[in-house]
Amino acid sequence: MNFRHEINTILIIGLTFIIHSCSDQKKHSKTIKSPYTSQIDSLMSLMTLEEKIGQTVMYSGGWDKTGPKVSDDNIKHIREGNVGAMLNVYSAKGTRELQQIAIEETRLGIPLLFGYDVIHGHRTIFPINLGLAASWDLKQIENSARIAAEEASAEGIHWTFAPMVDIARDPRWGRISEGAGEDTYLGSQIAKAYVKGFQGNDLAANNTIIACAKHFAGYGAAQAGRDYHTVDMSDGELWNTYLPPFKATVDSGVETFMTAFNDLNGIPASGNQSLFREILREQWNFKGFVVSDYTAINELIPHGFAKNEKDAARLAMNAGVDMDMMGNVNRLYLKKLIEENKVKKETVEEACRKILETKFKLGLFDDPYRYSNEDREKEVIYKKEFLDAARNAAAASSVLLKNDNKTLPITKNKTIALIGPLAKDKESIIGNWAAAGDRYGKAVSIYEGLLEYVDEKNIFYAQGCDILSNDENLFNEAIDAAKKADIIVMVMGEHYHMSGEAASRTNIKLPGLQTTLIKKITEEVPNKQIVLILMNGRPLDLSEEHVLTDAILETWFPGTMGGLGIADILFGTYNPSGKLPVTFPRNVGQIPMYYNMKNTGRPINPSNPKEDYKSNYIDVSNTPLYPFGYGLSYTNFEYKVTSSGKQLIPGEEITISVEIKNTGNYDGSEIAQLYIRDKTRSITPPVKELKGFKKVFMKKGESTNLTFTITTENLKFYNQQLDFTYEPGRFEFFVGGSSDLPFTHEFELIEEDK
């Protein structure tokens, strides 16, 4: 018997709420304030236990040449009401067809939730997340997520598995490409921008999608940079470094969380009650639902934490993991676990309730097809304004690492030797996790970008080598091209599969013979300027390339319009303004390396860095090749910094006044960065911490004034008792364009009774 029309009527008028509200109010005291409580109560009163369990189940579709494809088994489970969400199904037509099965062929007609990895764009692909972080432009990052939500929602998607807010300090880890880099403050600000961009101000609007903060927690600290590996850290490190970006997403109203693959201090994240019950729910008051990562619940078994899949289902549900992504354990084992009193029925019902509430927030019970509109899909995908935004983002995310003798920008009358395996690439340029982006049709290569500025006859192209091959047969063609041209532009880096999930590397140099080709060209074609354009998903060891080339432009994987955005920089239409969100080491032996490491009891002596019995290396400097916050411009900026005082009293503030002058010959943007050092405290402090930043545009010769304020909020940290507090003492600060500048000012935080 089909009760679809009955339940729709009940949900509208809320009759059963009269019956159930009194008896259920105490049971659901945590959610009683929800505007959807009565409707959820009404629905759940009609649901069988199997149907409630079904809401906690996510299965996957696939994709063939004509559109979404879902296995017969999964279709069967949907018809039986045993699936709450689907992964990897998109397009207005495909999602509508599946939603019709859920609405019209199941007993209660509960809509499906469609999720997809919309990470740095959906159809219009923006630079990879690490690249977007290099823009330090929160409005631009929010807008990239807003555009992604517009496109994804037009193709029937309700939910993205983003943002990834894991702090990552090991470039060997492939998924460093998916986050905002190494800094907690910057990462927290970017996390909030993504959530706001995806979710907007109204989840019931048909152009917003729910966000998912991932991976909770500590995933970016996997030992040896090896994906899925063990994480073991102190509570102080966890709370001061890795948890704040997640807390920022909760404060921004993120609707969902995703578990991490790793174990954390001996407890796998997907079975970790402390993370999900105590921290996320009790301390942070998170009201949304938690989804496992792909088969992460099943993986509790090889972790050595669960005996079998049934035991894994028990551990995860009791830990607070509400939805099982692709593991199939909830559907198979939860009912039996309830019968055996190993999982409380109320625990499963609460998970079901949270998932249903999300569907109500999205308006799916009002109109389950609101996201599956083919006319809107045609209108929204690849809109010109979206492509223009992606072009601008590609330029804003690029970081100029080196520019000797003003090699860049290039004048249009020069002939160019365009060399390298990525010069004509339209596949890797959009990077990993590129969702539904078109790698071959819409993507614009560097070669195509140059053609907007230079006549094709003035470009001498040669591939030169492959990324992974050791074949030198293409070298001579590249050398010949270099000899013909006025300037040499080499486009090199990683293949997009070399970063992202399951793409850890022990060698972070340019792969293959790319560096060898650069050396060969410098030998055969001396005295010509060489510009190196990089595409990569992680910091690389560029110690050789820094010496061999005249200019280096880090473009990450710049996205659909990458070729045009990069050309805008090369020819001076856009003055590079990006700053590194992550440190570039001199070699892999320095890893892990990040700007705000702690001092030791024997810190290096700056005036004598090779002094014995200090915390240094005997074969390389302690310093990075390129520090966090670093990035050059075609112009120069001069700073003057003053402060309103040298004492800070709790409840008051110190005002920092900054005058920045553009002293060069180009208009440009500068990112002013505030760093503070706590000189002494009850747990050892980092040598410096980013506490604020502002991006400003100035015409050449122009000055601008900025203001930063320091209050006790800037000075708080989690102490030994994990209290978020501040301590009186002496502090130093500076404001500048990179993290590697000296401190210029001091102040003292004094006791309140003083």
Which stretches of 5+ consecutive residues score pLDDT under 50? Answer: 1-32
SS content category: alpha/beta
Which value, in Å, is the CA radius of gyration?
27 Å
| Order of strands in the sheet with most strands | 13-18-17-16-14-15
Instruction: Summarize the amount of helix as a percent range.
Output: 25-40%
> Biggest β-sheet: count, sense, barrel?
6 strands, mixed
| DSSP E strands, number | 28
Give the overall form. Answer: globular
The first-to-last residue Cα distance is 76 Å
**What share of residues are in beta strands?**
15-25%
Mean pLDDT: 94
Number of contiguous helices: 22
Task: Give an account of the 3D structure.
It is a single chain. Strand 16 (487-493), helix 20 (514-524) and strand 17 (530-535) form a beta-alpha-beta unit. With 754 residues, the protein is α/β, with parallel strands linked by helices. The strands form eight sheets. Strands 13-18-17-16-14-15 form a six-stranded mixed sheet. Strands 6-5-4-1-12 form a five-stranded parallel sheet. Helix 2 packs across helix 3. The chain is 30% helix and 17% strand. It contains 22 helices and 28 strands. The model is unreliable at 1-32 (pLDDT under 50).
Descriptors:
754 residues, 5-stranded parallel β-sheet, 22 helices, alpha/beta, globular, disordered N terminus, 6-stranded mixed β-sheet
